[in-house]
Amino acid sequence: MTSITTIHLRKWLKICLFILISGCIFSACKTTKDNSMAVQAPQKNKKFVINEKSVKEMIEKAEPLIEEVTEMKYKKKMKHEIVQRDVIRDELTQDLIPQIKKLLNITNDDMVKRQAEMTAQITSQSILGKYSLAKKSFYIVPDNVGTVSKFLEVKEDQLEDFVFLLVTHEMVHALDDQHFDLNKLIASRTTVEIAGAFNSLLEGHAVYVTNKIADKLNMSETAKQTSVKSAAGVSGELNRMQQQAYHSIYVKGAEFVEAIIEKKGPSIITAAFNSPPVSSRQIMNPDEYLNPKAVTGIDSVALLKKVAEKLPIEGMGTQSIDIGGMILRTLLISKGIPEGEAGPISNSCINGVMYVASKQVMQTSQNISLFLINFTTNEDAAKFDDISQKIDKSEIDQINAKLNAYYKILKEEDLNLDGYSVARSREYETKTDNKIAKKLSSTAIINNMYIEVGFENMEKLTAKEMREILDLIYSEQLKMKQI
Q1: From CA 470, how far away is CA 474, in angstroms rounded?
Q2: pLDDT confidence of 111, banded at 50, 70, 90?
Q3: Whose C-alpha in 232, 444, 446, 457 is 20 to 30 A from the C-alpha of 73?
Q4: Before 338, cis peptide (omega within 30)?
Q5: Cα torsion at 327, 333, 338, 341 (round to 10°)?
Q6: Phi and psi torsions of 301, nearest 5°
Q7: Which among 222, 372, 218 has a CA at the least distance from the CA of 299?
Q8: Where in the sequence of the chain do the CATH 3.40.1000 domains occur?
Q9: Residues of the chain with pLDDT > 90: what percent?
Q10: Alpha-carbon distances of 321 from 9, 179, 312, rounded to whole Å
Q11: How far apart are CA 323 and CA 305, in angstroms?
Q12: Could you read off the pLDDT of 391-437 as tens digits, one per residue?
């Protein structure tokens, strides 16, 4: 088996960063020294110009419409200013660093900084307008109008509607902020899964209200879709992973908001922000949010902490990411698993965690990895094992199809371990990018918990240590059940 944790670490990070960026990006702007500049957008369009006057007119037009749809009143007029992308880039970097460090549990400060800088640089090129939680003001970035409208194929005759709907979207964030203190809510999200569920509510409400207003004003479906993509920082074709993350937060988020409003009326939004959804299961199944069921299972994060205390990780940097249905679904679909298969198994995910301890020795990367995930039933844990084996086979075929690359299985065996319905190990060697790695991994199932453990280039760790870790996981989860 190819360890999900080691093979897909970069994908986990990209998924999590996309989820985080949707929640914290709009708090990362500063104003420029000169707010009076007028920018033509795009250059060939002589009819519509973004300046203080046009933005102010849009805000005045949108405010009563938003209040009508939401049945909430602005406590004060939303401020607006013009900013430049380099300022957003620098501020977004600083804003992302604590979010990445807190929610992704990365102990390497240089890695945190690099991830924040890379994400901020890319995102700053595709933001047209965002509401700043820090300054309580709407910022628009006219420097990006040309590139964004080109990427999203916004036609000249749709440009004004496109910008108006973007302004409307961010104004909904401003209204929610005035009523619910979004800064406090975002800061209190403790895991990526909880943050993702909240971002689905946050962005879903903005999309829902904006779409209602667009329909009221008979604006085109294209203007609606492109304005949402601009608000999400989309600047071109999305890969499968990005498509699914975008779909989960913006599309399913809007469907969630619409569903709870249809059942409870607009006032349910106040209740939702006061007690936000905490999982993608609730976003995908609004009835579960409105009528929560008791879902029992071992806390994977707590179990990991117990196990990690006894791992041989001295001198290694560590990173852990909690795994929920949103991230799991996104990863599976990005690996080619059909929605009809990825959706149900992801909805069955109660909780999970991915953990990697690593260090660099000369030119060799050494890693110890763990992947724990709880499902609602034993059968779903077994189904996920089947899906993982499909991904495993695909990964092996892809590596072996490359020039100067290989995946050699050296030894495979089934393990007879107390408490496990499935336990198997594989010793193998890979060569990719002219680097040879020696690996040992195990896949196992305890009741409704799926487990992976992996060693990479850990010469002193053998099958004996692998079995000891699996025994440790079993004994620790047994203790947790008895409490």
Answers
A1: 6
A2: confident
A3: 232
A4: no
A5: -20
A6: -65, -45
A7: 372
A8: 300-482
A9: 49
A10: 10, 31, 20
A11: 15
A12: 999 999 999 999 999 999 999 999 999 999 999 999 999 998 888 99
| Domain 300-482: top CATH class | alpha beta
Sign of dihedral through CA atoms 61, 259, 233, 20? Answer: positive
Measured CA to CA, the distance from residue 231 to residue 215 in angstroms comes to 18
Tell me: the pLDDT tens digits for 368-401?
999 999 999 999 999 999 999 999 999 999 999 9
Token pair for residue 298?
Answer: 């071992």
Please, are residues 304 and 228 in contact by the beta-carbon 8 Å criterion? no
- Measured CA to CA, the distance from residue 153 to residue 155 in angstroms comes to 6
Query: Residue with structure tokens 């004996």?
Result: 464
β-pairing verdict for 406-414 and 364-375: unpaired
Contact call for residues 375 and 349 (beta carbons, < 8 A): yes
- CA 454, CA 469: separation in Å to the nearest integer? 10
Sheet with 79-82, strands from edge to edge, namely 79-82, 137-140, 129-132
CB 347 within 8 A of CB 326: no
Q: Within a 10 A sphere around the Cβ of 460, how many other Cβ atoms?
A: 8
Token pair in block for residue 391 = 């991904």
Asked if residue 4 has pLDDT above 50, the reply is no
What region, left, alpha or beta, does residue 433 occupy, with left being phi > 0 and alpha being psi -120 to 50 degrees?
Answer: left
The one-letter code for the residue type at 287 is D
Tokens of 16: 């999590």
The CA-based dihedral angle spanning residues 200, 204, 205, 209, taken in that order and rounded to the nearest 10 degrees: 170
As a whole number of Å, the end-to-end CA separation of the chain is 33
Return phi, psi of residue 302, to 5°: -65, -40
The model's pLDDT over 247-298, given as tens digits with 9 standing for 90+, comes to 888 999 999 999 999 999 999 999 999 999 998 889 988 998 998 876 667 8
Pairing of strands 422-432, 435-446: antiparallel
Length of the chain: 483
Q: Which residue, 79, 95, 88, 85, is CA-closest to 23?
A: 95
- ∠ CA 209-258-141 to the nearest 5 degrees? 30
213 contacts 66 by C-beta, under 8 angstroms: yes
How confident is the prediction for the chain on average, in pLDDT?
84
Phi, psi of 110 (to 5 degrees): -65, -40
Calculated CA dihedral for residues 229, 172, 60, 146, nearest 10 degrees: -20
